[in-house]
Amino acid sequence: MNNNGKLNRRAGRTNKRDLLLDAAIEVFATKGSTSATIADVAKKARVAMGTVYLYFESKDDLLQRCMSEVISAEIDSIIKKTESITDPMDRLYAFFIHHVALVKEKPYIARFITVEVRQSESFSRRNPGYNPQQRYLDHVVDTAKTAIETGRINPIDPHALAILLVGTMDILIWQWLASEGQMDIEAISYQVRQILQTGVTPKAIS
Amino acid sequence: MNNNGKLNRRAGRTNKRDLLLDAAIEVFATKGSTSATIADVAKKARVAMGTVYLYFESKDDLLQRCMSEVISAEIDSIIKKTESITDPMDRLYAFFIHHVALVKEKPYIARFITVEVRQSESFSRRNPGYNPQQRYLDHVVDTAKTAIETGRINPIDPHALAILLVGTMDILIWQWLASEGQMDIEAISYQVRQILQTGVTPKAIS
Amino acid sequence: MNNNGKLNRRAGRTNKRDLLLDAAIEVFATKGSTSATIADVAKKARVAMGTVYLYFESKDDLLQRCMSEVISAEIDSIIKKTESITDPMDRLYAFFIHHVALVKEKPYIARFITVEVRQSESFSRRNPGYNPQQRYLDHVVDTAKTAIETGRINPIDPHALAILLVGTMDILIWQWLASEGQMDIEAISYQVRQILQTGVTPKAIS
Amino acid sequence: MNNNGKLNRRAGRTNKRDLLLDAAIEVFATKGSTSATIADVAKKARVAMGTVYLYFESKDDLLQRCMSEVISAEIDSIIKKTESITDPMDRLYAFFIHHVALVKEKPYIARFITVEVRQSESFSRRNPGYNPQQRYLDHVVDTAKTAIETGRINPIDPHALAILLVGTMDILIWQWLASEGQMDIEAISYQVRQILQTGVTPKAIS
DNA sequence: AATGAATGAGCCTTCATTCAT
DNA sequence: AATGAATGAAGGCTCATTCAT
Asked: Looking at chain A, which subunits does it touch, using at least 3 CB pairs closer than 8 Å as the criterion?
């Protein structure tokens, strides 16, 4: 679809680099980043081991790039998709649902986020802005603040709500991955929304 | 020769074994179980490397024991502590608070639970009963069912509530660990309880 | 770029593999396969330790290959060399002499055969066809049967003769190795032939 | 059965030492001396590992003592048993048969002789007099010389005869061990005697 | 730009040996 | 004399990284 040499060359370069990033995420998610080897990644990408080092400085660099580039892009994409929704409650729910969709479409990205990113402390400390969970939390806090300001939801603590939502999403995905796709993630999501909306306590008593 | 031979021998054996388990959990939690070496564990426990193999068959065995013995014991202890509380809502909250207390007291156990157990799929598959998160989920589901039956809370989906609670707890701890203890975990916990009790939607509107 | 790509690659691979096999046989023969280390073999072959694992799966695999490839090839070669000799007695003697020549030329192969193969029971059981001593015995039995059928030698038990010959050869080499090449192995061989031909008992008395 | 304290104490000491030597030979013969561990020997002897070091300086010392004491004693015993036989040919055959009997009675000693002793170069060099095969060879050479001097056998090379006999014996036992006792060792022994007595060559032709 | 053979540091594990009891 | 827990050096093997082609 590109129509000049410059873009093509760039695309060529980008394609192999992206090919490697995709292969790396899948391999890292499947075997765990420590157990996965450069040979595994190279094999999955159908290139020679040495080629990996033409695009990434080291195995650790490759791992960091997976987090900061691929994962970050996916999350940006999700957040952007929900920005046009005006009702904050709907926006949060849409964000939730879009993430679920990503998970179903590219499960290895979900596994990578829920497993690898969490344990990568060195990454989190060096690149706090790229921690997907932090991105999610910040996004929810922002949305919640708007919702409160507009009176759309009760004046609750936005940070607490964010933790509730993101934590729920995280473990929901974890459970779904563990169930190997057997769990009805949408049904649970809907139930979660109901609880959050009305609370658990009977109205008369609360 | 202190008390009697039997106790001494048993205590002696148990002590060194427990010493190793504690050291292992801390080391595994800090470096990740794959990156951590037996030498690290031995050094932390101030014994020689070979000694580890007097009490555990392999590095993997040591990791499994950390999960199935130490972690499981802590979780049993927490669940047991809350069993006497009659009000289901209070019981769930107490369970939450006890877990927070454990985390504050032995942060490396928390880190081990939130990070290592999650990625140890092989363990989870072989020993589903020892997965702490599953234990938590089951416990909350049970408690929620009771609460619903007694009319103490609305007839919501217990499984959804469990995912909400445990997921929140999990990420709350993760955030607290990342903040290196700076976050006011109790305040957030209280806010979470408020949200869960009354819901986010203004009464009149919902 | 010498001849053609195919041959070069093949030759390159074969050469390093053969280099390792030769080094391994010498090291195994000298130190014993259990005491010999991969580092020893690598050092003798002037490669890095890891290189061994590019050509062989494990230390045990390397040992098996020494037996099944190198040793077997040498023995095939000896047996083939003697096949054209028509007189069975001469053929047996030629076989004996050729083996002695091999021993003198590549003493470490001889030592490997007399020492390592003997103790490698697991190998013998799994690959009975590659046991050099068994190969020798079978060959001698076959030749002896022909010799008997043609009336060239007395109707003795071929199996007993095989054991006599191969056993003698084995220990003769062992003695020669122990004497560090000082023993006149051909002279003894000739004497052995004399004894076998005429027997030890004076004609009149027997 | 001893009847004074001194002897008893000595016997006590000797018994545990002998117990260890027996256990060691069996273990060394079964697993190979390099693969066998001190723990194996201690377990077989039903003593603690440390006890081994009360009677032997090191694992190597234990191995040397197995060769120089136990094996040597067995061989002395065999040679002594045949000394009274006047006819040299009968004496050699009796020696052969006695060794076969030892092998059948204590196969692990046979395996130890045929396998372990052979590969223990360091031992052979340091203690040439204790090499069982050398002892056998020397004995046969002596007997053969007598037989020749008395005209009982042809004036052959005694050394060649010795190598013939001992080599045959060695491989015969090896074959028998490999056959797991299925081979009729006596029948083959008899055939071997026939061949040695009369030779393989038809009288008229030789 | 691409390859993959070669490297060697580092890890898990074993086991001969010691020593406090 | 006897024990066996503890030690730590050494070996097999892996894999991130390099470099000649």
From this structure: B
Quote the pLDDT of residue B4. 37
Burial A72-102 (b: 16+ CB within 10 A, else e): bebbeebbeebeeeeebbebbbbbbbbbbeb
d(CA D178, CA C140) in angstroms, rounded, equals: 19
D54 nearest nt, CA–C1': F1
User: Chains A, B: CB contacts under 8 A, how many?
Assistant: 148
Range with the largest mean pLDDT of A149-153, C17-21, C112-116: C17-21
Does any CB of chain D come closer than 8 Å to the CB of residue C198?
yes
List residues, Cβ < 7 Å, touching strand F.
A 35-39, 49-50, 53, 58-60; B 12, 16, 47-51, 53-55; C 36-39, 49-50, 53, 58-60; D 16, 47-51, 53-54
Instruction: Return all residues near C27 (Cβ < 8 A) that are at least 6 apart.
Output: C36, C40, C41, C44
First to last CA, chain B: 72
Interface membership of B166 toward A (CB under 8 Å)? yes
Hey, is the C-beta of C120 within 8 angstroms of any chain D C-beta?
Answer: no
Can you give the pLDDT at residue C129? 58
pLDDT digits over D70-105, tens only?
Answer: 888 888 898 899 989 988 888 888 988 898 888 888
Count of C-beta atoms within a 10 Å radius of residue C17: 15
CB atoms within 10 A of CB B11: 13
What's the confidence (pLDDT) of residue C68?
85
Residue C4 φ then ψ, to 5°: -150, 160
Query: What is the pLDDT at residue C9?
Result: 37
A177 near A107, Cβ under 8 Å?
A: yes
For chain B, how big is the Rg over CA atoms in Å? Answer: 20
Cβ atoms D200, C154 nearer than 8 A: yes
Question: For residue range D121-143, what is the model confidence (pLDDT) as tens digits?
Answer: 654 555 555 677 888 889 999 99
The total of other beta-carbon atoms located within 10 Å of residue B148's CB is 18
Mean pLDDT, rounded, for B65-74: 87
Instruction: Report the alpha-carbon distance of residue A145 to residue A140 in Å, rounded.
Output: 8
Q: Which nucleotides of strand E lie under 7 Å from a protein CB?
A: 1-20
Residue A14 pLDDT more than 80?
no
pLDDT in tens, A134-173: 888 898 999 999 888 988 888 899 999 999 999 999 888 8
CB < 8 Å to A202, chain B = 151, 153-154
Chains in contact with C via at least 3 Cβ–Cβ pairs below 8 Å:
D
Q: Which of A137, A134, A133, A140 is nearest to A93 (CA)?
A: A140
Condensed to tens digits (0 to 9), the pLDDT of residues A127-144 reads: 555 677 888 889 899 999
Q: What is the pLDDT of residues D45-68, one digit of tens each?
A: 999 999 999 999 999 999 999 988
Residue pair C150/C143 in contact (Cβ under 8 Å)? The answer is no
Cβ neighbourhood burial of B124 (10 Å; 0-12, 13-18, 19+):
middle
